[in-house]
Amino acid sequence: MSRKNLNTLAIEDFLQNVKIASKKQTRELKLDQKQYRDLADSISMVLARLVELQDNKPTEQEAISIQMDGGKL
Questions:
Q1: Could you list the residue range(s) of the whole structural domain that residue 48 is in?
Q2: Is the residue at 50 inside a domain?
Q3: Where is pLDDT greater, at 12 or 57?
Q4: Residue 6 burial (CB count, 10 A)
């Protein structure tokens, strides 16, 4: 199954803005309508991919058998 790469640019931009605001000790961070919609879309896609990966995770692990004979000299 081929998946599109996740577009995390909005998340990266938000984190960069948080970093800058933190350095400047800004009390609030404002997002315009496009920014918060893009951020919400990116977070939703990341969470959906996470759920998909968790659902595809095998529930039972294969049993591994190891035998040791001590070797020969």
A1: 28-55
A2: yes
A3: 12
A4: 12
Number of domains present in the structure of the chain: 1
Rounded to an integer, what distance in angstroms lies between the CA atom of residue 36 and that of residue 23?
A: 22
- Rounded to an integer, the average pLDDT of 28-38 is 96
Q: List, as own/partner pairs, every contact residues 25-28 make where C-beta atoms lie below 8 angstroms and the sequence separation is at least 24, other chains included.
A: none
What string of H, E and C letters represents the secondary structure of the chain?
CCCCCCCCHHHHHHHHHHHHHHHCCCCCCCCCHHHHHHHHHHHHHHHHHHHHHHHHCCCCCCCCCCCCCCCCC
Q: How confident is the model at residue 59 (pLDDT cuts 50, 70, 90)?
A: low
pLDDT at 53: 87
Average pLDDT, the chain: 88
Residue 53 in tokens? 């990966």
